[in-house]
Amino acid sequence: MLGWKLLLQHAAPNALHDSGARFDPPKCDDDTRVEVIGEIMGWIQDRDPPQRCLCLTGAAGAGKSALQQTIAERCAEKNVLASAFFFSTADFTRNIVAPIIPTIAYQLSRINPLLRYCIVAAIEDDPLVFSKSLRAQIESLITRPLLQYQEKSGADLRDIPRAILIDGLDECANEDHQAELLTAIKDGFLNESLPFRLFIASRPEWAIRTALAAGGCFHGVAYQIQLSDKYDATADIRRFLWRKLLDIGARSSDPQAQPPFWPTLQDLEILVRAASGQFIYAATVIRFVSERRGSPVNRLNTILNWTSGNNQRSNPFAPLDLLYANILSKAKEAYDAADINGHDFLLLLNAYRLNMDRNNDHIVQDLDHLLCSEHDAHVWFLSDLRSLITTEAYPNHRASGQQLLQLRMYHKSFLDFLSDQSRSKELFFPKSEAVWKTFIGSIMQPLHGTPAMSTVDA
């Protein structure tokens, strides 16, 4: 059938939760993320939830994709998975919005032959439907075929699989397209005639933040789980590392790696602290230590003692460095394109890093001060760094009735990345230059009668 062939041509098989292209995808380890998984599955299985869209946001490496994969597999087991789509920056077949509606339509068509017939008939009636807007595609490929299926079969649409999962919205290449997709989801999938639950996971980037904010298309429509803030993963990470390291040791031929002598509790706690509550650090450690060509004891010691000055050939943090470099490069590019005052993005970022090294007095209004007192300048400076950095109320301190904010970096390893030229490479900013330029700024532009962001030791 022509319509079926066209649907397959426009879908993205690599984006499926069980795609061979995503072999051995990350997922939650046993006995981890129990509370948040329970919350999400309970919401999906609720036949009449107050909100039919859930947005999961969290820092880079917080474990969002692992949660999505776990939820997808559990939904499939319970026969409530309608569709799953995993975006990926690195895969050109699934880093754009074009294939998402056809891919969802393909997965829906596999529910039963009659629904497949209705979807294929819609394509054959309008073979150019794939060139239309996302909202029009939802109407043509999903809404109308489902209503036709209901009319022909007499079935209750609430009985069909209801969970539609979209992972990594931030990995879609174009921010405007991300926003378009969210609007289309709200207008198309969340109308009262359809039974779906939309579960969307993303770093807290511009499109999802705007959609959830007051006046955004999801405000009051979707509820949000802020993974990095609501659920402390420290205990889960400790269990994950302990179990994985014991398993690696038990399978190793190195007698030093045999339980119960390895790993030590001291080593475990060092790793847990370094993870800063983010699963990506723990997963990076396990991936490096589990390499078969070498002793796991030696490889773990490499991580525990690793510094750029040790002349070690392998960098155990290479996957982390790639993640940080990608986020930081894109943020710098966006900032440089919008900034008309010639401010140095890396200088401002590293001024904060140095100030955090010195003490905890890192107030974002000081950053506005260095940006020539532009109101809320930090908002757009940090706009593309929200998956690495957040702001929170500065305790017990107000200026002219205004609540001051302080900066918090989600990852200790990100601070390590910024301070190590061998890791950050062209994104490295020399400490001496940052200290000097920040000191000059503090002299030239005093804030509230005190030096702004001074990083010079007394």
Automatic annotation (TrEMBL):
SUPFAM superfamilies: P-loop containing nucleoside triphosphate hydrolases. This is Nephrocystin 3-like N-terminal domain-containing protein. InterPro entries: NPHP3-like_N (IPR056884), P-loop_NTPase (IPR027417). It holds the Pfam family NPHP3_N. Residues 42-203 form the Nephrocystin 3-like N-terminal domain. Keywords: Repeat. It comes from the Eukaryota. Gene3D superfamilies: P-loop containing nucleotide triphosphate hydrolases (3.40.50.300).
